Amino acid sequence: MNPTETDYLVIGTGTAGLAFADTLIDEDPQAHVTLVDRHGKPGGHWNDAYPFVTLHQPSAFYGVNSMELGSRRKDSIGLNQGLYELASGAEVCGYFDRVMNHKLLPSGRVAYHPMCNYLGEGRFESLLSGQVTQVAVRKKVVDASYLSPSVPSTHTQRFAVAPGVQVVPPNALPQLWHGRRPAFATGDGATDAAEAGNTTRVPRRFVIVGAGKTAMDAVVWLLGAGAEPDAIQ
Ligand SMILES: Cc1cc2nc3c(=O)[nH]c(=O)nc-3n(C[C@H](O)[C@H](O)[C@H](O)COP(=O)(O)OP(=O)(O)OC[C@H]3O[C@@H](n4cnc5c(N)ncnc54)[C@H](O)[C@@H]3O)c2cc1C
Question: Whose CA is nearest to atom 8 of ligand 1?
Fold first, then answer.
């Protein structure tokens, strides 16, 4: 085991963990923070988001206290025309990368351990090497993984799939024309475009499972990409 010391051991480098660390090192000039996350990059679930995701609120109201997200620009085109910009998932990930690399790490008071799974009792394990590190925590272990939203690209479907039906997470929609094997499960391998050797077969009908923000984003994206309204259920 490889001993390390810190004041605050924070589990999760999503919005919650980064915002906490950012405020803490500003408010307490002595504090040392150690951040641990299973993801390879800061930003939490935004790393797993579908490529057409955006914030549903103006960028200026999102992120950490010390660094503004976006430039308070109003969109001049699209569905958000006339309203303040909504950062894309890629922008959110880039922003959290800057928070880590331009603010937190240069402070000299933050240690970051990506690709590490927290095991409990101050111990975390590298997902790549299996090495376990024991951290001596002077003040608190902070669980910033508490909300950890579950997004379709990272969980397994909990329903049966009929033969001939291809199931993909929203992440795979813009790549369907590639004929790549979807990251999510399929109902019947024989009809999977990749297995059929047909690299250009794109589905013509879509059934969206769910009716929340992700589902509505998928519908809007499909319509914008040219799907017929009647082909979407
Ligand atoms: C598609 C989508 C769009 C959204 N849009 C908005 C929006 O516009 N505005 C808004 O306010 N909110 C939005 N949300 C809500 C969103 O949940 C929050 O904004 C925020 O990103 C959640 O951050 P978090 O840090 O709580 O969780 P996460 O981003 O999930 O971060 C938790 C982190 O903890 C890590 N972790 C968990 N367990 C362990 C472990 N044992 N060891 C190591 N690491 C671990 C995970 O790897 C993860 O990186 C959106 C959510 C989704 C899914």
Answer: 55
Q: How far is the CA of 90 from the centre of ligand 1 (A)?
A: 15
* Nearest of 205, 209, 179, 208 to residue 192 by alpha carbon: 179
Neighbours of 190 (CB within 10 A): 10
Span 7-11, average pLDDT: 98
pLDDT band at residue 3, thresholds of 50, 70 and 90? low
Residue in the structure block whose two tokens are 């590490």: 116
Residue 102 C-alpha from the chain's centroid: 20
- CA gap 63, 18 in Å, rounded: 8
Handedness of CA 195, 197, 203, 204 (dihedral sign): negative
Average pLDDT over residues 88-103: 98
